[in-house]
Amino acid sequence: MHDLVIRSRRVALPEGIRAAAIAVRDGKIVALADYDAVLPAAATTDLADLVVLPGLVDSHVHVNEPGRTEWEGFATATKAAAAGGVTTIVDMPLNSLPPTVTVPHLETKRSVAVGQCHVDVAFWGGAIPGNLTSLRPLHEAGVVGFKCFLSPSGVDEFPPLGLGEVEQVMRELVAFDGLLVVHAEDPVRLHDPVDGSYRAFLDSRPGAAEKAAVQEVIALAEATGVRAHILHVSAAACLEPLAAAQARGVRITAETCPHYLTLSAAEASSTAFKCCPPIRDAGNQDALWQGLADGVLSCVVSDHSPCTPELKEGDFATAWGGISSLQIGLPAVWTAAAERGFRLTDVVRWMAAAPAELAGLSHKGRIAIGCDADLVAFDPWAPITVDPGALAHKNPITPYGGRELRGLVHATWLRGRVVGNGHPPAGSLISLHHNRIGNHV
After folding, report:
1. How many CB atoms are closer than 10 A to CB 94?
2. Exposed, middle or buried: residue 107 (CB in 10 Å: 0-12, 13-18, 19+)?
3. Straight-line distance from the first to the last Cα atom of the chain, in angstroms, rounded to the nearest whole number
4. Of residues 328, 420, 374, the one with CA closest to residue 365
5. pLDDT of 118-146, one tens digit each?
6. Which of 38, 136, 188, 268 gets the highest tally of CB atoms within 10 A of its CB?
7. pTM for the complete prediction?
8. Please, are residues 112 and 77 in contact by the beta-carbon 8 Å criterion?
9. In what order do the strands lie in the sheet with 436-438?
10. DSSP per residue over 253-317, as a string?
């Protein structure tokens, strides 16, 4: 007897979309059968022609709790995730107070998350000046990897690393095959905007700054043998050095974000569009899509970095830089991808399988026997209009307000349980070692 069977004529399996029945027991997928197979179960759901996707994995989310919970907290962020078909998030180590740069700080963050999470949550550790000896203990405590900045992060408690310090961190991580994820902008090539316009802000963070930093990270990764990953690639100039490094066998991957793929500089009508690195022009956007098609960019993740409305006031020189898109990443990316001739299976690879692989969460991101029964009922052609006030994240700020998209999430299951839509929190805290180290109980 199975706990649950979900049937659909369109299930997004690793080998493609086909009719299937998914059997779930104890939160895991235990069988995949024909759509009309006889599978005894305590409950059966027939979704007919709705597509069943694996739950998305968003490996780049700033929750900000504790310390800046007025910006975003675990309850609101994970509720938004569930509403958007995201069943696992990986929380970034900064903007919370304290930042996740020691094991006690990690335990502080975990303690406040327990009981609040509507989806599963894993954690990044941070690499900052002075915490080299904390990296292995953090790894052993279950963080999925370590984030560093090469340029100022925007918060004083999470300073950037110099290149010599980056090399030290890499040599420490390679001893236990740790992963370093890098905000790559060369600080020497950044400058303050000359005025408050979007053009001045864009000019202050040129693509050349990204490319130069990416080249430095590649050189260090090649010298040390570490696993490295470039976060939120916005500049197409980065693609050539990344492709060349990957072809030579350097252990380096890269991601981009929905806003770089779906928004352009010409649309930047308010500070809701401000993020670092910035949204660039339409030609640059075309090249990023090609980077995904070529496999140079493997992941599409939100970089959900919210703040209070007050911090988004002012102009592009003074407002906080961060985009809120955790709930609407799937329809935003799918709408643009479909227009460019990509398939829904491509979106699943970019937004579920690849981020799960990056974070070492092998039991996530795929509809396969043995994986967690994290599933999404999705209507890819249903029209939606983004209403900022109806989004579940804490502050109703998004550059997607009023935008017409396609793709509606009808239901989200986490380990076989429906989440979101008024259901109580059912998420667990998970570690790199695949242990559930805390949960909703």
Report:
1. 25
2. exposed
3. 25
4. 374
5. 999 999 999 999 999 999 999 999 999 99
6. 268
7. 0.97
8. no
9. 56-61, 86-91, 120-123, 429-430, 436-438
10. EEEE-HHHHH--GGG--SGGG--SSPP--HHHHHHHHHHHHHTSS-EE---B----GGGG-S-TT
Q: Is residue 429 within 8 Å of 436, Cβ to Cβ? A: yes
Rounded distance between C-alpha atoms, residue 194 and residue 185, angstroms: 19
CA distance 364 to 356: 6
Long-range contacts of 204-207 (CB under 8 A, 24+ apart): 205/276, 205/277, 205/278, 206/235, 207/234, 207/235, 207/236, 207/237, 207/238, 207/280, 207/284
Residue type, 1: M
Q: Mind listing the pLDDT tens digit for each residue in 203-221?
A: 999 999 999 999 999 999 9
Per-position DSSP letters for 385-420, written without gaps between them: E--GGG-SSSS---TTTT-EEEEEEEEEEETTEEES
Q: Which two tokens stand for residue 345?
A: 């299976």
In this predicted model, what pLDDT tens digit does every residue of 147-175 receive, in sequence order?
A: 999 999 999 999 999 999 999 999 999 99
